[in-house]
Amino acid sequence: MTYHTQMEAAKNGIITDAMKIVAEKENRSPEYIRDLVASGTVAIPANINHHSLSPEGIGDTLKTKINVNLGISGDSVDYEREMNKVKLAISFGAEAIMDLSNYGKTNTFRKELIDYSPAMIGTVPMYDAIGYLEKDLLEITAKDFLKVVRAHAEEGVDFMTIHAGINKRAVECLKRDKRRMNIVSRGGSLLFAWMEMTGNENPFYEYYDEVLDILYEYDVTISLGDALRPGCIDDSTDAGQISELIELGALTKRAWEHNVQVMV
Predict the structure, then answer these.
(1) Which of 93, 111, 160, 219 is 20 to 30 Å apart from 208, CA to CA?
(2) What is the pLDDT of residues 202-247, one digit of tens each?
(3) Contacts 24+ apart (CB under 8 A), 75-82
């Protein structure tokens, strides 16, 4: 194989099997899909280890895709019930399952989910870090967070929401411009708390190139999470949100340079 990711193939003029499937589903030509993937305006999240996947395209000029959120939590530790949700979602035609599990050893559920699901699977590694690593938030190191990203990639996750744009500069903007509702992103608030407790830069920002190396290896699409999105109209387009959006634009271009597909 002369490529690692769908984007790398597309940039080299190669039409992959996944592109052919997406083209058929979208009533487009394979060449049309290839060109959109090459430009970054369409992503085909398709981990090389997700063998049950039926590929889908997300982005410009394509049909809207349905994503279903579910997962194991401290309030609902019932693997069978979550799998029933998965089966119901797929029976109704959902194209994506977002596994937001954040309690205990979530990889048992995730592995079963990936083995079963023809829908693409997404996760938020930050949610899983505390349970997966069995450490308190303060004890988790930057390298620990990367271990969770690698574990999810190896298991076959097709896309990961990673809050890489909330760096020290964006946090300073947030602090100067007081919010009515503070940070409403769960992943963002966990990262903010870790940064405040340790005094360190956001590990997903500081070690972004290493994150991209992992995602490139398994062809995982990065979903750049907006940690500083507003929780109410009064907070919209404040300094924190705009500062993060600027970072997300730069991080998108860096991912494309690594031939990693991006959703924002």
Answers:
(1) 111
(2) 999 999 999 999 999 999 999 999 999 999 999 999 999 999 999 9
(3) 77/103, 77/104, 79/108, 79/109, 79/112, 82/109
What phi and psi, each to the nearest 5 degrees, are found at residue 224? Answer: -75, 110
Domain ranges (residues) in the chain: 64-263
pTM, two decimal places: 0.95
State residue 88 phi and psi, 5-degree precision: -65, -45
Q: Which amino acid is at 70?
A: L
Q: Say whether domain 64-263 belongs to CATH 3.20.20.540.
A: yes
